[in-house]
Design goal:
Layout (H helix, E strand, L loop, with lengths): L16 E4 L14 H10 L4 E5 L25 H11 L3 E5 L6 H6 L37 H14 L4 E4 L15 H11 L12 H26 L6 E5 L11 H5 L6 E4 L11 H13 L4 E4 L1
Parallel strand pairs: 1-2, 2-3, 3-4, 4-5, 5-6, 6-7
Bound molecules: zinc ion.
């Protein structure tokens, strides 16, 4: 269960968060950054929380000695381990981003774990051009496949590094026709549970289609519950967060946040649309997220 607001938890106070992502497939800066440098930036801007990758969407880890993926090539030292030590020395909490459904390296070993659309094509995180050949960057893996066990290992390794929270920054498994998964694991589970094959074409008059739609949300929430349970096994007060993109970025759904009540301690309301939305947009998205998440759930916003 998520911890309620009345319990003594580290996140029950005003938080100022520095989120630091590596999206550097040209290797321009990853080898120049250390955990200490990130902590120094956090201190400079008076942040009391750092959000950072334990594993990125390509499948690389940002620490050494784990089994969840190879360390990021060119990484200086033991990035995340050093960051956690340095941050704690300065009273700053660390939230690790783990278990993104996108994982290219794992896909290259286990392509049968991929989410595939109704045409059998991998479901990608990136917005790939519709013309020409596109080399996948971020194929998404399916939480109904053995990928979920791998994701559990990622959570465990992050907790062992001493992080104070975990964020499922990009945990995607969506019901909309172009992104919905028809992999063999999904098809088999659905048939076992309901006795029908998964319908392919949307038909709202068909109860099996509606059942499939609802079931996909339950798949996400069940997977999040499993991962959250792993995080809380440590007995430490580890914050469990989920990135919701409340305005629907790339088809994200607030319904996950609502159905995951009791599982999440916090929601990151990432407002990527703020660039072209009117003033007040982020405040509205925070209100919406609070309403969906229920009492006592912390909302991060940007
Ligand atoms: Zn699937």
């Amino acid at each position: 269960m998520a911890l309620s607001a009345s319990e003594k938890v580290w996140w029950n106070k005003p938080l100022r968060v520095l989120q630091f992502d590596f999206e550097d497939f040209l290797d321009l800066y990853a080898s120049k950054i250390t955990g200490r440098k990130v902590v120094e930036v956090a201190e400079k801007i008076r942040a009391n929380v750092i959000v950072v990758f334990a594993r990125d969407a390509w499948g690389y880890t940002y620490y050494r000695g784990g089994r969840a993926g190879p360390p990021r090539p060119g990484m200086k030292g033991d990035f995340l381990r050093e960051l956690v030590e340095e941050a704690h020395r300065r009273g700053i909490k660390v939230v690790a981003m783990v278990a993104h459904t996108a994982n290219k390296l794992l896909y290259m070993k286990h392509s049968d774990w991929a989410q595939v659309n109704r045409r059998g094509e991998p479901v990608l995180l990136e917005h790939a051009p519709s013309l020409g050949r596109w080399r996948f960057q971020w194929p998404q893996l399916c939480p109904n496949s053995p990928f979920l066990e791998h994701a559990t290992l990622e959570v465990r390794e992050a907790i062992e590094l001493g992080v104070d929270g975990i964020l499922f920054d990009s945990f995607r498994y969506q019901p909309d026709p172009e992104k919905a998964c028809y992999c063999r694991w999904c098809r088999q589970k659905f048939r076992e549970e309901f006795g029908y094959d998964m319908p392919v074409d949307p038909d709202w008059n068909n109860s099996v289609w509606r059942t499939l739609w609802d079931w996909r949300y339950r798949v996400v929430v069940k997977a999040l519950s499993r991962l959250a349970e792993e995080a809380r096994k440590s007995g430490r007060k580890v914050m469990v967060l989920y990135n919701s993109h409340p305005a629907g970025w790339a088809g994200r759904a607030n319904r996950v946040v609502e159905e995951a009540r009791g599982v999440l301690d916090g929601v990151f309301a990432e407002c990527s649309e703020a660039d072209y939305q009117p003033p007040g947009f982020i405040a509205e998205m925070v209100k919406l997220t609070k309403a969906m998440a229920g009492d006592g759930v912390k909302v991060f916003a940007s």
